[in-house]
């Protein structure tokens, strides 16, 4: 878990994306980019990294936190 916390907190945009999905529950990539004020290709890269770590999952065209992602988001939020 500590390794994942370091992975997320080591990049502000990863942390922001996780927090955004924590509060909004599910968003598509375009809405993530708009809310985060970053380019869509950057969002796609972060999403790919977080899916690989099993922190978020894709359902149709939207992304949402996995159970692990929810736990991690709460821990990071409390730091």
UniProtKB/TrEMBL annotation:
**What range(s) does the HVO-A0261-like N-terminal domain occupy?**
5-77
Concerning Pfam families, the annotation shows: HVO_A0261_N (PF25213)
- The regions listed as transmembrane in this protein's record are none
Xref: InterPro entries: HVO_A0261-like_N, WH-like_DNA-bd_sf, WH_DNA-bd_sf
Q: What is this protein called?
A: MarR family transcriptional regulator
- Native organism is Methanolobus mangrovi
């Amino acid at each position: 878990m500590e390794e994942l916390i370091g992975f997320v907190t080591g990049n502000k945009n990863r942390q922001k994306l996780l927090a955004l999905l924590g509060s909004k529950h599910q968003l598509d990539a375009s809405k993530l980019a708009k809310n985060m004020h970053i380019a869509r290709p950057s969002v796609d890269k972060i999403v790919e990294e977080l899916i690989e770590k099993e922190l978020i999952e894709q359902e149709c065209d939207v992304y949402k936190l996995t159970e692990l992602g929810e736990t991690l988001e709460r821990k990071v939020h409390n730091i």
